[in-house]
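Shipment paperwork, digital attachment
Item: protein structure file
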Amino acid sequence: MTIFFQVLLDGLLNGMLYALVAAGLSMIFGVMDVINFAHGAFLMIAMYVGYWAGTLLGLDPLISWIISAGAVFLLAALTYRFIIRHIIGKSVMLGLVATFGLAMVLKNLCLSWFSPNFKLLSETWLSGKTLVLPGNVIIAIPQLVTAVFAIAVVSLLFVMIKRPRLGWAIQATAMDKDAAELMGINTEWIYILVFGIGGACVGVAGGLMPMYMAVHPEVGRLFGLIAFICVAMGGFGSIFGALVAALLVGLVESFAGFYIAPVFKYIAVFGLYLVVVTFRPRGLFGW
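Attachment content:
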């Protein structure tokens, strides 16, 4: 039973990380109907910001995540200003292709500037620290802290959406942009805010991940793909759905990787995705 609970716990911790990455992506699509294919590249940028803040400034990821989140918020806001605002309301495929191009630009810039080599912060405040639960179940403290941040960020998104004035403005803009403008809502400001917050969510994740994960130009590709799976499985635009789907993905990945074979874990994840969208094309909580 110890092994079972260890695998279960690892899956939940991974799922919370995926939820943190996917929450912002789900929010962006729910409000703007834009698929941000550069989401994984934003994660990579956040990780590089956290790495260099630790290397050059001596800041621990528990502090530098604020800088990472702010940097990606700014990057996302600029992305909206110069790219997304010109294609919003048009074909979803147009937004996907445009953000895919942005992702390629960001990845190749990092390849040119930082090389393809893996970079790892060797000493952080939580490096190597673990918590042993009854039954010899071990929790890695850095992953646990990331899960706590994920819970906090997702909860804040829920509160923001439910907050009377701001939440109603966001929901009104998502439902009918023209009607929202007639009611005096500055929809341009709402779009910038939502796209920036979506970027900041992945910025928080990327700022914390250098505590236990190496940084390289390809690091965001897999996480970006898993985030898309979580958003599609949960239902496009549903933050709660993305959370539930992320936990399912984390558990399936963990159990399949341990009880079947490590190389099988992503086959199991994609298989779960295919099963869900076959019977629920709009996702678990889509409408």
